[in-house]
Design brief:
Layout lengths: L2 H6 L18 H12 L3 H33 L4 H48 L4 H6 L2 H43 L3 H46 L1 H6 L3 H53 L5 H42 L13
Length: about 350
């Protein structure tokens, strides 16, 4: 079978051997697939969560400290209080540094160990599948799941996921502190938050589908390259260089189109979220300024309020940026889960030699 003929049959993961469409996974189903690999590292996961909470708590505490410094230290011109405020800031910096170190080291260790276990599981499961399954499967696609897809998941686990969790905690904590600083702002928050969350949900689903398609098209490029190089003697013997070059260029063009579609969705999502967030923050600052001029809040409260408003805005912006990476990883994880869920068709030998 030539490379072009084998590729034209379609990816084995898009249709199973019975011809049914490939299974689609929800986030909960993906978690169920990967949970057995995370469970042995629950102690490290708990430490990472503790570090995330420590960092978020320290950052959120700085806002109230800022209000106290402005009202009591600068407002009353108390040098001793100013000295204590600087010392407290240094202590918070130490907590932030230790928490960041603990978070980074724990998350990276978890990611490296979990992905090593997943690679072993993928390879161990693949070699139990029948020869007939491999006749329909494309070698490059199988290898893409072991290498490219796991690398994407690993990158997200070791950096993106922890950043998303930290910014989510800061977003929730910042919203709570904004409301506590000025209860009137709760009405604005109740309007802004749904306007931000709805695009994240609906466009996030489309972005996940686009990311999955981009991963499939990228795997097709690897398939064309791997099968052509493997059969290079046959290709050259029959003078089919231009034919396989055309197949490869078409695969690259399709991969480029899918990647650009994902990028456009990601950019649109980020732009919509940033616009909504900063528009809401502008309204909140206007209301806060009116209350300050009317004497209903102090300068320290307004400073704290601006600090938390900026924290909410920056966290939301980061989350909108990280949403694309998370959806891309979800697409890669879905491809891995499909291979792991493929039913093994070779019985285990009773007495392996």
């Amino acid at each position: 079978m030539t490379t072009g003929q084998k590729s034209d049959q379609g990816a084995v993961f898009n249709h199973d051997q019975a011809g049914a469409p490939a299974r689609s996974y929800s986030s909960r189903q993906l978690l169920a697939v990967f949970w057995p690999y995370l469970l042995p590292h629950r102690f490290r996961i708990a430490l990472a969560i503790l570090a995330l909470t420590m960092v978020a708590g320290a950052l959120l505490g700085m806002g109230r400290g800022l209000a106290y410094l402005v009202d009591e230290g600068l407002g009353k011109r108390d040098p001793a209080l100013l000295d204590r405020a600087v010392l407290a800031t240094a202590m918070i910096a130490v907590v932030l540094a230790f928490g960041s170190y603990l978070r980074t080291s724990m998350v990276n260790k978890i990611g490296e160990r979990v992905l090593a276990d997943i690679r072993r599981a993928i390879f161990g499961h693949a070699i139990t599948l029948s020869a007939g399954w491999f006749e329909n499967a494309r070698t490059g696609d199988v290898l893409s799941r072991i290498t490219t897809d796991t690398s994407i998941v690993q990158t997200v686990m070791t950096s993106t996921l922890s950043m998303a969790a930290r910014n989510f905690l800061l977003l929730i904590g910042g919203l709570v502190m904004v409301v506590l600083s000025s209860p009137k702002m709760s009405l604005v928050v109740l309007v802004v938050v749904p306007l931000v969350v709805v695009p994240l949900i609906f466009m996030g689903r489309r972005l996940r589908t686009a990311s999955r398609l981009a991963q499939d098209r990228l795997a097709d490029v690897g398939v064309e390259a791997e099968e052509t190089v493997s059969a290079i003697r046959t290709v050259q013997a029959f003078g089919r260089e231009q034919f396989v070059k055309g197949n490869f260029e078409r695969a690259v063009d399709l991969s480029l189109s899918a990647g650009l579609a994902r990028v456009r969705l990601r950019g649109l999502l980020s732009g919509i979220v940033i616009f909504l967030v900063f528009s809401g923050i502008g309204v909140i600052l206007w209301i806060g300024g009116q209350d300050l001029m009317a004497g209903r809040i102090s300068a320290g409260d307004l400073s704290s309020f601006i600090f938390y408003a900026f924290l909410v805005a920056s966290s939301t912006g980061f989350l909108s940026e990280l949403a694309g990476d998370l959806q891309r990883a979800a697409g890669a994880a879905e491809r891995i889960a499909q291979l792991l869920d493929t039913e093994a068709s070779l019985p285990a030998p009773a007495c392996p030699q």
